[in-house]
Amino acid sequence: MIAKRIIPCLDVKDGQVVKGTNFVGLRNVGDPVELAKFYSESGADELIFLDITATHEQRDTVVNMVKRTAENVFIPFTVGGGVRTIDDVTRLLKAGADKVSMNSAAVRNPELIRKSSERFGAQCVVVAIDAKKVAEGKWHVIVNGGRIDTGIDAIEWAKEAERLGAGEILLTSVDTDGVKDGFDLPLTKAVVEAIKIPVIASGGCGNPEHFLKVFQETNASAALAASIFHEGTYTIKEVKGCCSKEGVNIREA
């Protein structure tokens, strides 16, 4: 059985890691490379950087951050935010990222998934889906940092992303993001059961038991958190200890 992964997420704005609630109310929490080093040394299995307000002008800042991270961190890391073209994917991978996450641009231009997968391999392509509940058992894909409801069914979009060549889905619940009441289990379960590629659960983690619950009640391959790690509320070691104690297959911190 493949070990479940614990992944800290670093939302980056203007070169600094920030955190908010329901995608708003952002506050600075630190330098991305220093935080990445700390998490790597603390037992994180992977890292995800999301440039949440990426623009063309900021791209050089992100590429420089990726290079610095690759020089200092020795676990896999994914970078996303503002990825619009195959050239963006190429630049980030060449700078040292192991995987590239695409969100809004993939919705607008699904061929970006296919082209990236064909050129670099599915293992390098992560499709990020921000989903918001619109009815019982139904979620829509939200783009532009949680601002625009596309009307696209999130489950169907996950299936399409897989068909086009995505190697992994980063699934964030807009409803639970930053709330700390736990992962969106119905959403996570629905997506995991609809596709065969790994799913990273994201949005809502407030304590180690929330990690345990998402692994026990869904077949998510990994779970992600930001606030509880950035604020020092819990450590990666505590999260892994909680999961391991209850029989979840997890790498030791």
From TrEMBL:
CDD domains: HisF. Pathway: Amino-acid biosynthesis; L-histidine biosynthesis; L-histidine from 5-phospho-alpha-D-ribose 1-diphosphate: step 5/9. It is an enzyme of class 4 (lyase). Keywords: Amino-acid biosynthesis, Cytoplasm, Histidine biosynthesis, Lyase. It comes from the Bacteria. Its EC number is 4.3.2.10. GO terms for biological process: L-histidine biosynthetic process. It is found in: Cytoplasm. One of its GO terms (molecular function) is lyase activity. GO terms for cellular component: cytoplasm. It catalyses: 5-[(5-phospho-1-deoxy-D-ribulos-1-ylimino)methylamino]-1-(5-phospho-beta-D-ribosyl)imidazole-4-carboxamide + L-glutamine = D-erythro-1-(imidazol-4-yl)glycerol 3-phosphate + 5-amino-1-(5-phospho-beta-D-ribosyl)imidazole-4-carboxamide + L-glutamate + H(+). Pfam families: His_biosynth (PF00977). Its main location: cytoplasm. The active site is at D11, D130. IGPS catalyzes the conversion of PRFAR and glutamine to IGP, AICAR and glutamate. The HisF subunit catalyzes the cyclization activity that produces IGP and AICAR from PRFAR using the ammonia provided by the HisH subunit. Heterodimer of HisH and HisF. Belongs to the HisA/HisF family. This is Imidazole glycerol phosphate synthase subunit HisF. It comes from Weizmannia acidilactici.
